[in-house]
Amino acid sequence: MIRPEEVFRIGRLGKPHGIKGELSFMFTDDVFDRVDADFIIVETDGILVPFFMEEYRFKTDETALLKLEGIDTVERARELTNSNVYFPRKLAEGTDDDMTWAQIVGFRLVDSAHNNKVIGEISSVDDSTQNVLFEVTTPDGAQLLVPAAEEFIDEVDTEKREIRVTLPEGLLDL
User: Fold this and answer.
1) Which of 42, 36, 44 shows the shortest CA–CA distance to 7?
2) Among 48, 70, 80, 126, which residue is least crowded by beta carbons within 10 Å?
3) Overall pTM surpassing 0.85 (yes/no)
4) CB 134 within 8 A of CB 39
């Protein structure tokens, strides 16, 4: 059984394309193309299920047309429409020195300046502007926006799944 902590979200399946089971795939991370992997993981009915990719072709920089093994009809493809797509962390790690933003979702954010206090868990990353922000859920359930500036990041520990930061005084009090 695939556990949620073993994967990270890379996109969502869209509507069927054609009549042979091909699907539109809107992705936020092209790791499936950069890494030598034959499969992706699709969330169906709350269960993470691996599907082998027969083929895919890029339509735009953020969309591909994807043919999955065993999905041969438009009806079967429709069953997967709007399903989240994931990729195994283990296959993605060590492929480059640079991790993608999608890979760090779920990491703990730890404040090095205050006795390694856990600030919270990164729930998403807003990279829609030049100033990238970690969207963090604190242990008490509050939401924080924390700058993902390189000068604040002390260490990224992929094994512990945590990022140690030293933030300017008072930033978390805003």
Assistant:
1) 42
2) 70
3) no
4) no
